[in-house]
Amino acid sequence: MQYYSASGLKKLREIELENLRGNGKGERKTSDKIYDYDTYNDLWDPDDSKDLARPILGGQDHPYPRRCRTGRPSSKKDPLSETRSSSVYVPRDEAFEEVKQMTFSTKTLKSVLHALLPQVEIMLLDPHLVFPYFTAIDLLFQGVPLPKSKNFFQSIIPRLVKTIAEGEGDILLFETPAMIDRDKFLVSEWPLKSKLDPGIYGPPESLITAKLIEREIKGVMTIDEALKQKKMFILDYHDLLLPYVNKVREIEGTTLYGSRTLFFLTMDGTLRPLAIELTRPPVGDKLQWKQVFTPGWDGTSCWLWRLAKAHVCAHDSGYHQLVHWLRTHCCTEPYIIAANRQLSAMHPIYRLLHPHFRYTMEINALAQESLINAGGIIESCFSPGKYAIELSSAAYDRL
């Protein structure tokens, strides 16, 4: 803090901060230690391929956290975009140390090989090859050993303690964590309704009704009682995914829906899925399509339920990856830049933050090279395809 610094250090600190901020000009070199802001305008190279064109992330149209400025030359076809290079600049103090570099490179190589082998197999096989019949899917798991079941005491005692804890008596009765009461997955409004523009995306009302829910929970309680007792939870990707459904469905070999999955908290403390609603918005002369799937006992209902769950799992895994990148890595980088531009290394807050910031910028730079870039790992592996990172911008806008 300036007021408590020795007078001889004040001028040196001012010079240091000025050097750390830079002048916003020129291309950064490996030896530089300059922290400056820029948008994500380097995820694709306009001079390379139109098929890899992506919007610039950061600004009014696509809000996004800022990254560290590299100052690479602008693209010839799009002056607002930077050309790509084999390595992305990070300030020298943020780069991996030798041991960390070796460890990270080894793990990266294993990950690349793990992802590469299925891709090679896909290239060798017919891409239009499908399962000849439904039960052929089960053959994928033939020969996979299942874990041995736990013995009686290992399985029954934890459940017994939990049952007693949830009883009306005071024996082993523990207070419910406050976190559960504020859980964002808790259903707080009924009936379920979309907040998107009905003129664009169709009727906002959900087809998951109170009658359907009460049927699935076998009359244990009414929907009002379930809501009051905080028994209803939802995994809601409806409004987030629906604006991208028609775009993604134009990509060959993939599809997408907006989805809602409703869960009921049972007496033994587990969440049981009750219903899945999949939705497609209007397109052309076709009206909005939506359907609710529930667990069934006949062959058709059973497989429709499995397919609906497969869609939700695909949505959830893609969302998890994007949220991890956005909140753990991407949103942290502007704080690292700001801390180095505004705080002295002597500042107590900087000293507290520094261990949490370590290596984040280097990891983010590597992500820009092969993870979040156009045609990268995220776009290749998750349902939204080439709209994945743009989707993370939409999620960031809703934070």
TrEMBL record:
EC number from the UniProt entry: 1.13.11.-
What function is annotated for this protein?
Plant lipoxygenase may be involved in a number of diverse aspects of plant physiology including growth and development, pest resistance, and senescence or responses to wounding.
Gene Ontology terms describing biological process: fatty acid biosynthetic process; lipid oxidation; oxylipin biosynthetic process
Q: What is this protein called?
A: Lipoxygenase
InterPro entries xrefs? LipOase (IPR000907), LipOase_C (IPR013819), LipOase_C_sf (IPR036226), LipOase_CS (IPR020834), LipOase_plant (IPR001246), Lipoxygenase_dom_3 (IPR027433)
Keywords from the UniProt entry: Dioxygenase, Fatty acid biosynthesis, Fatty acid metabolism, Lipid biosynthesis, Lipid metabolism, Metal-binding, Oxidoreductase, Oxylipin biosynthesis
Q: Where are the transmembrane segments?
A: none
Tell me the ranges covered by the Lipoxygenase domain, including all copies.
1-399
The protein's GO terms of the molecular function aspect are: linoleate 13S-lipoxygenase activity; metal ion binding
Domain of life, per lineage: Eukaryota
- Name the pathway it acts in: Lipid metabolism; oxylipin biosynthesis
Homology family: Belongs to the lipoxygenase family.
Region named Disordered: 38-86
